[in-house]
Amino acid sequence: MFVLVNLKAYPCDPIAVAEAARAVAEASGVRIAIAPQAADLAAVADTGVETWAQHVSPNGYGSHTGSTLAERAAAAGAEGTLLNHSENRMKLADIDASIEAARRADLETCVCGNNPAQIGAVAALGPDSVAVEPPELIGGDVSVASADPDIVRDAVAAAEAVDDGVDVYCGAGISTGDDLDAAADLGASGVLLASGVAKADDPKAALEALVEPLA
Ligand SMILES: O=C[C@H](O)COP(=O)(O)O
């Protein structure tokens, strides 16, 4: 299972979380990546943890003020990028162009969708992975895997029907090892989470507890 921790714009210390994630990944053998704010990509990557951007823009180099270039995210040390997060939704054509931009920069891609229909649609664009996240469960205490297991099962089926080479992750409310186990049982090969780590008093302990069933 891949554990992708999105720090969003939470007021945590991205370096402390990144160092904790690197230590837990090394000790457990579980693949863990951190997606910090764009301004923190290089500092987070310098810790040695696998680092992802939260978004890259559909454009390449040029007159695009305020954009996040895939090429510069990669140069800062990012190895992958989220796209179309529920909190940063994109037009379909821009998702397509951002996947292309990420590919040019050798960034792995994970495109989010709210439901199985959206997951099928974005899987057709050829990302490396997709992540299903019901917006109403994001930031809550109940994991998507227990609150709405069918949405995960159906998202796995929707992606597989389009392209069985696309990995399917799930997210929203995931914070415990049991949540991770339940996600795996539903066919997900990774989880996308945020508040369970970024808002934890002790992010390292939260990550250790999360991967404990896999270690
Ligand atoms: O990107 C992460 C997801 O939106 C899940 O957030 P959450 O773990 O706080 O529910």
Brief characterization of the structure:
The chain is 40% helix and 17% strand. It has helices at 14-28, 41-45, 70-75, 92-104, 116-123, 144-147, 149-162, 177-185, 195-198, 203-211; strands at residues 2-6, 31-35, 50-53, 80-83, 108-113, 129-132, 167-171, 190-193. Helix 1 (14-28) packs parallel to helix 10.
User: Low-confidence runs (pLDDT<50, min 5 residues)?
Assistant: none
Based on secondary structure, the structural category is alpha/beta
What binds here, in terms of ligands, is: glyceraldehyde-3-phosphate
- CATH homology-level superfamily of the largest domain: Aldolase class I
Which CATH architecture of the largest domain would you pick? Alpha-Beta Barrel
Number of strands: 8
Pathway: Carbohydrate degradation; glycolysis; D-glyceraldehyde 3-phosphate from glycerone phosphate: step 1/1; Carbohydrate biosynthesis; gluconeogenesis
Function: Involved in the gluconeogenesis. Catalyzes stereospecifically the conversion of dihydroxyacetone phosphate (DHAP) to D-glyceraldehyde-3-phosphate (G3P).
Family: Belongs to the triosephosphate isomerase family.
Protein name: Triosephosphate isomerase
List the helices and strands and how they pair.
Blueprint: E1 2-6, H1 14-28, E2 31-35, H2 41-45, E3 50-53, H3 70-75, E4 80-83, H4 92-104, E5 108-113, H5 116-123, E6 129-132, H6 144-147, H7 149-162, E7 167-171, H8 177-185, E8 190-193, H9 195-198, H10 203-211
Parallel strand pairs: 1-2, 1-8, 2-3, 3-4, 4-5, 5-6, 6-7, 7-8
Helix pairs in contact: 1-10, 5-7
The chain binds glyceraldehyde-3-phosphate.
